[in-house]
Amino acid sequence: MKLSKVNLSNLVAIAHDEDFQLGLLLDRGDDLEYVEIPAPVEAYDGLQTLDEAIGAERPVLPNSTQPVLPATNPPIPRQPVKSTMARSLGYDRDRALLQVEFQSGAVYQYEGVDEDTWDAFRTSDSTGAFFNQAIKGNYHFQQVQPPTSFC
């Protein structure tokens, strides 16, 4: 068996269609890119299995203070933003939870986000740049809504 190092950190979502195209939604910083490549459904299944295996082993980051709650318990109101990366942002001060709705429709919830970070995020000049610098990789997160469309 030959091992190859791969970096899937920019992979946001995957899809597979009846034309044997593997769809990849990639985070390109301030933008999301949807790419299709020819691949059998087993490639999609393999990526799903990989995500489950990695997800089970993801460490809780040190700034996490409580478990992430489902988005519907209670819902977090989001406000629309002008961004090529995100549609809307929401924050629950009581639970220190941030929600980001990406352009794909996917919603991710980030745990342990303090009010100062939220205020800086919602007022930043570039939602995508702030997200990549201060949010992404710094907080425990979970997807609470799958993508509804691809860019």
Describe it.
With 151 residues, the chain is of the alpha+beta class. It has two domains: 11-57, no CATH class; 78-145, no CATH class. It has three helices and eight strands, in the order βββαββββααβ. The chain has a five-stranded antiparallel beta sheet, covered by helices on one side. Strands 1-2-3 form a three-stranded antiparallel beta sheet, covered by helices on one side. Helix 2 packs antiparallel against helix 3. It is elongated, with a radius of gyration of 16 Å. Mean pLDDT is 80; it is low at 56-69.
Radius of gyration: 16 Å
Shape label:
elongated
**How do the SSEs run, as a string of H and E?**
EEEHEEEEHHE
Whole-number count of domains: 2
Topology:
Elements: E1 11-16, E2 21-27, E3 32-38, H1 41-57, E4 78-80, E5 86-92, E6 97-102, E7 107-111, H2 115-122, H3 127-135, E8 141-145
Antiparallel strand pairs: 1-2, 2-3, 4-5, 5-6, 6-7, 7-8
Helix pairs in contact: 2-3
Task: Summarize, please.
With 151 residues, this protein is of the alpha+beta class.
Short descriptors:
single chain; 151 residues; alpha+beta; 5-stranded antiparallel sheet; 3-stranded antiparallel sheet
